[in-house]
Amino acid sequence: MEILIKNGYVYDPINKIDGEKMDIAVKDGKIVESVGSNAKVIDASNMLVMPGGVDIHSHIAGSKVNSGRILRPEDHYKDVEPRTTVTRSGVGYTVPSSYTIGYRYAKLGYTTVIEAASPPLKTRHTHEELNDIPLIDKTCYLVLDNNWIVLDYLSQGEIDKCAAFIAWILKALKGYAIKIVNPGGVELWGWGRNVESLDDQVPPFNITPREIVRGLCKINKILNLPHTIHLHTNNLGKPGNYRTTIETMDAVKDLADGKPNIHVTHVQFCGYGGDTWITLRSGAPEIAKYVNNHPHVTIDLGQVVFGEATTMTGDGPFQFILQSLTGNKWKNADVEAEGSAGIVPYKFKRKNFVNAIQWTIGLELALLIKDPWRVFLTTDHPNAGPFTEYPRVIAWLMSTKAREKTMERINKRAKKRSVLPSVDREYTFYEIAIITRAATAKALNLTNKGHLGVGADADIAIYNINPMEVNPSKEYKKVRKALRRAAYTIKGGEIIVKDGEIVKSFVGETFWVKPTMPEELEKEILREVAEKFKEYYTVSLENYIIGEHELARSRSITVNTSL
Amino acid sequence: MGEIILKPKVAFKVPIIAETITPDNFAGKSIKEIEDLEAWEGNRKTTLGELFEITGAPGETPKDTKIIIEGDVKKVKKIGCKMTDGEIIIKGSVGMYLGEEMKGGKITVEGDADSWIGTRMKGGQIEVKGNAGDYIGAPYRGDTKGMKKGTIIIHGNAGNEVGCWMRGGTIIVKGNTGLFPGIHMKKGTILIEGDCAGRCGAMMKGGKIAVLGYVPSILPSFTFEEIKKSFKIKGEKIKGPFYVFTGDLNENGAGRLHVSVEKNKHLQFYEKFLE
Q1: Sequence-distant (≥ 6) Cβ neighbours of residue A458 within 8 angstroms
Q2: Contact assessment for residue A266 and residue A179, using Cβ atoms and an 8 Å cutoff
Q3: pLDDT averaged over consecutive 10-residue blocks of chain B (275 residues)?
Q4: Within an 8 Å CB–CB cutoff, is residue A82 touching chain B?
Q5: How many structural domains compose chain A?
Q6: Using a CB-CB distance cutoff of 8 angstroms, which residues of chain A are in contact with residue B139?
Q7: What ipTM describes this predicted complex?
Q8: Based on the structure, what is the number of domains in chain B?
Q9: Chain B environment of A71 (Cβ under 8 Å)
Q10: Which residues of B fall within a CB distance of 8 Å from A73?
């Protein structure tokens, strides 16, 4: 099928196109120079054209997402979507049904989404659910930092063997990158404890969080993986934890070679200053200062949007603290030899001092970090709010007026403690395109995504708003409204959304990395893993490996390692 | 006052969701407009006109609109949803979620009512002449915000978990109740004039429960406080005497549970704690 998108205002930061009026031609799922006269023409005059969105961190599939659905029946009944001729029915607000997740992302103009944490043992479940998320392309990060086999190798200093093991596990379980969740702390949570600093010992393995992070960062480099290590810090959700965050970033500074080598995720949750909940303040200025001066770090926001949320992380001890604070219902799980998980429903309230501070931290980070290529928009869906609220966050970033309007309604003490009122930076459409698409695609090294150059995948979002006429600073409501419902979303060369409604549905691709490895080494590692498996796991190794046929549409990315 | 009468055209076989049957939706409308209001019959969208024979004339405002349902509407859910004023009289039995989130007005049921009546209720009054099902005044499953204000009176018996997660208001059951009345309750009053099947006030944090009939036992997480002569509900004194317990201590709760002394001779051993 051929499509010609005519006269749209195109924002394509990777190709340095800033609001230029131009045509985009699509043929066979790719962007091409030109198409024939029979092509379907989309009149995009006075509309905003961007590459399809790329969400770097979102919890959309896996056992903990599904547990969240079961834990929260009250989350579903107010938000019901009936079946249409194209789409299936579904429910959900913070944790929508699998199908609904795909539809809602497509309506926002997002076409690639990454499931942010999948413990290896639960990855089969993750892929089963990813198969049922239509339209978008997706993949998952594997949580590897509290894996006993990884910890065994790291504590013995066998970096190369550990790298080979990780290469094998990424290939065997069809993952994309190394996710680190509270390194060491989650393992200690199995013993009812947690770590408090980067240099605490994790007794069963005699290793420190610093050694785990550095080890995995080195391995990431050996394996030449497309994404950096994706890190959820220690001490998450504790006042004063911005120091830990900066220390963690600093721990891998010497391993960098000019490119980013660590991605710290949902920094809002680990950017708290002060010592107690009463003296809580934002640690965003300090973190922003560090990130501005150190090009080896990328971050995403985890921006709070007020309202219902469901916190779900692999960080078991943090969820326990949250449960004790709120008294809400709580789910806690242990994944044998690999990690833990917890789920607690939460409501972010404007008038709550802590919640209001949390809201300011996310925005301060986005506004104080000068380079938009290293700070990405997320709400850590559904931890700080559902992804459907991204347009609200964009409106706050683009308009001081929108921020002031919300600040009038938040807790007064929190407002007084924030530097946000003094920040007058406003994002442009170009910068918004960077933080939602271009920079995330670049950070994930998805070379065919996040841009509209010839040869890129034809993933395109068209919004019914004229960026030349609308002043987002004043008319932020118009921006918000337009971004909520894409006029068109094109995925792989097919029109999937028209005027905010799904018009076509199919399954997107699942990416995974296939690191190359010498055969000898692979055999040796497999032999060692098989032995450890007998000792550590209740499942057999044969049942652990996920076949390529289990993925609905598999696309492997071969990476050349230096193993 | 405008009166409007709804008569089911046939005996309903599949569940019907008719949240449009409220004085707020009917007020100031013609019969034709009311007939066109939406309803769901199973998985099929339909209209009130398809389901009911509608006669009479509604008032100008919800306040002077009275809806009378003549016949059995056991299969019809969500009647009186979010109503703010006016009156609904059901001359028969009614289905689930009667008066969901209602804010004012009055609903009278002359037959029985099903479960979840007055769910997340915020005001007004529901009176059931017959029996009622489970979860009276409770929130939706998984939610923690139950009935906030208003009154529910059941003349017959009620099922399990009366006043679950209740945050205020009054529930009076003239007959017996099932297990767990006042579970998770935070505030408000529950009066049970008959017997209770047990486990009163489990996990309650506040509020008051009084049982005038027989209670098999008191949960071990309640402490015995005193013997009181009377119990006050809506300014009215109810004569006792009552054993008074505080709990649920598992939840650091300070709810008050009153149990009739006269009907519960087997609880006499508590009296020795008074000395």
Answers
A1: A3, A26, A29, A30, A31, A490, A491, A492, A493
A2: no
A3: 91 93 92 93 92 91 92 93 94 94 94 94 95 94 91 95 94 95 94 93 94 94 92 86 92 93 92 84
A4: no
A5: 1
A6: 74
A7: 0.81
A8: 1
A9: 142
A10: 140-143
